[in-house]
Every structure is written in structure tokens, then in C-alpha cells.
Request: fold
Amino acid sequence: MEQRLSGRVAVITGGASGIGAATAEKFVEHGAKVVLGDIQQGPLDEFVARLGDNAIGLRCDVTNEDDVAALVDLAVSHFGRIDVMFNNAGIVGAIGPMDTTPTSEWKFSLDVLLNGVFYGMKHASRHMKVQGSGSIISMSSTAGVMGGLGPHAYAAAKHAVVGLTKNLAAEVGSNGIRVNCIAAASMATPMVAAALGNEHTNIDDTLTALADMSPLRGRPGRADDIANAVLWLASDEAGYISGHTLAVDAGLTTGSTAGDPNFAEYQPIMREAGNKGL
Reply:
């Protein structure tokens, strides 16, 4: 198998489970060294041990800029460089009507979902500018390009990630750095499992629920679907792609739904003043 990231070094936040872990496995499979950050120390240590010498881990709270800076600096000090930054860590965050949302929950949600991405972009670009190369990839969401798909804080943060992606791409393109993000639909991950009312470890029932909701009949979204997209954006195959928001959503943002569209059956052409037919 061709190794699409051979010799490259990637930093992944939220790397101990879900999309982060799936991406780390994919990157190592394709020849990369990975530096994983996560607030879950136990699962992080176990996962890094399973990946072997191609991976190291560091406890990282993305609401703390010093933690994110240390994670990025570890990649450079241990492996000599940073080629890929994947800002993946996230939570569902504050839930409910805007008029009942506690300000403290709003601020914490943005701290994780937006400020954590900003810190990753900031410190990765600091090193990548010196190198003259790099790929920065961040998790947005379908809730970051449409309304009504997520809670207010989540939607605001994910819309902001799209804006930051475009702005940073405009800043650092002349330094040889590409910046992109992914607008993902709900994927079968521990976070989505919990949001659907399942135990966070119950991925099987989550897959079944997502299959029923999917615009692609019977096809749920999986963590590996995002890992494949991140791999492509990180690789030379996407070498002319920057400032882009890649939807990985089974067509949800096109208006596709799990049911048939309104125009599923033929009827005579509708014309002016209620007339039909040619």
C-alpha cells in the first residue's frame, strides 16, 4: 500500500477516541508519526501504547493555550517538525433555548470549540511558517454551514471555524501552508452516541440510529469517513486545496434527506397562473 504521509509528523487534539483516534490510526498506517493530545489521560496512554513507537501523547486541555502550545512544541522537539495539525477536540456544549443558556456554559463551550481551534492554528502556523510548509485541518460541522442543526454555542463556534479557516488560509498561503476544515454530519462516535441518549460506548446502536437518519439510505456516518477526509486534506493529493470547507455529510447540506424529495414523482409541467402542461 502506498503510504501517503510517509515521513510526516501530525498533531491531533482529542486524539484518544472517536474521530481523533480513527485519524491517528489512519495516519500511522500511512507512514506518519503522530503526537496526540487529549484531556482523558488513561485512554490516551492506552491508545498511544497500542500505536507503538510512531506515537507519543501528552495530556492536553484545549481551553488552556499553554497545553496546546506544549503539544505542538513536543512534535517539533521529539520528531523534528510538524507537517499536519488536526484541530479535532470538541464537545456538544451548552444545550437549550438561548434565553435559558447559562453564560458560563456558553463561554466554556466556545472555549473548547473555538478558542481551542484558534490555539492550535496559532501555534502550528508559528512552526509551519519557519518550515515553509504544512497543512492545518479543523473540525467544523454541518451546523457550521447551516442553521438549526446544533445548539447555539456549537453552531456559533463551528461557523467561526469556517471563517477562521478562510482567513488563516489567506494569511499563510504565501508561506506554503494550506488551511482547510471539515463540515461533518453526525458520525458514530462516543460524543454522538451520548447526544442520541445512548451510552457513549454504545456505537452499534448509534450506527443503527444514524443509518435510519442518513440521506444515503441505510449508510451511517463513521469516524473512519472523517479520517479518510483528513488523510486526503493532509496529503499531497490535496496540494492545491486551501481555504475550503469539505462537507462529509451524505449530502445533508444539499438538502438531501432520509425520505424522498418533493419532486420524486413525475407530474405535468407547472406554468403560469396555475396552468399545467405544454
